[in-house]
Amino acid sequence: MKLAKTLATALTTVAIFGFAAAGPSWAEWKPKKTVEFIIPAGTGGGADQMARMIQGVIQKHQLMDQPMVVINKSGGAGAEGFMDVKGSAGNEHKIIITLSNLFTTPLATGVPFSWEDLTPVSMLALDNFVLWVNSSSPYQSAKDYVDAVKAGADSQFKMAGTGSKQEDQIVTVAIEQVAGKKLTYVPFKGGGDVAKQLVGGHIDSTVNNPIEAVSFWQAGNLRPLCVFAASRIEAQGTAKWQDIPTCKEAGVGIEYQMLRGIFMSPGVSQEAVDYYVGLFQKVRETQEWKDFMAKGAFTQTFLSGDEYKKWVADAAVLHKDLMTKAGFIAAN
């Protein structure tokens, strides 16, 4: 229960909401060649879907003169992508979308990387986590599921997630502490693969982000049991997100949300940072973005500048604490 309580209290403090206007100089710098948009995760997952949606919006509305190409670099739980951007000092034509592996990957693997090696640009949103089971499962609520885990043997239930010792497994460990039983955690490269494993009946549950599983839910393949957030999802759309209780409502006292943010290489100019802040603000004004936010049930939080840096710094401290309690820190 200790990790679950830490998740519930600390992340509430970290989730700062605010808006920051683009600096007046953002239009003074513009890309002069193709911009590489790095995804430190596999195809089909939440980060991949968001990055490709953004690329499409920028192209459709001609928000940038130069083309943008999306590149997946998921090796080493995203370390491949982070090290690429870290090693591209001064490259103002390379950006990266981040998730919680910004913090968890260096802690779990010992790879020589920190968020401070990159240049923060902006937070685009906070992503939610949902406890999912196959629609043919007998579990109709989170309490049903947790009670079954409690009644079963250690490692009897299989939970799939993206990567090892990352956010999905952090939430899994919190569930283990609530249930008092071990789960068999099965890692995959991306959230899309994770959801497909659950649809196929190869595992018992996932904590997929909404965008990764919504199509399978709407098709009648999956059932959401609870959302790991402080309040119910307010997103509007065809999916009835507001009907999903919080895990705390369901008696599972765990809360966790994940960063969807943008960083650049180290050593870039403030003018370039301001340009991308302005670019993403324009993306957020489009109907496509609004529809994507509703479909994926995101918490629509935008931060840049010092507010964003402070949020990231606080989140880094939080994740080190969570990873330490879970025993996921790499040995020196």
Can you tell me about this structure?
- This protein has 332 residues and is an alpha/beta fold.
- 40% of the residues lie in helices and 17% in strands.
- It contains 11 helices and 11 strands.
- It has helices spanning 2-14, 46-60, 79-86, 101-109, 142-151, 167-179, 191-199, 210-218, 270-284, 287-296, 305-326, and strands at residues 35-39, 68-72, 94-98, 119-128, 130-134, 158-162, 184-188, 205-206, 222-227, 257-264, 303-304.
- The strands form 3 sheets. A 6-stranded mixed sheet has the order 2-1-3-10-4-11, with helices on both faces.
- Helix 1 (2-14) crosses helix 6 (167-179) and helix 1 (2-14) runs antiparallel to helix 11 (305-326).
- The longest helix has 22 residues, at 305-326.
- It is globular and about 60 Å long.
- Mean pLDDT is 90; it is low at 12-27.
Write the layout of secondary structure elements.
Elements: H1 2-14, E1 35-39, H2 46-60, E2 68-72, H3 79-86, E3 94-98, H4 101-109, E4 119-128, E5 130-134, H5 142-151, E6 158-162, H6 167-179, E7 184-188, H7 191-199, E8 205-206, H8 210-218, E9 222-227, E10 257-264, H9 270-284, H10 287-296, E11 303-304, H11 305-326
Parallel strand pairs: 1-2, 1-3, 6-7, 6-8
Antiparallel strand pairs: 3-10, 4-10, 4-11, 5-9
Helix pairs in contact: 1-6, 1-11, 4-11
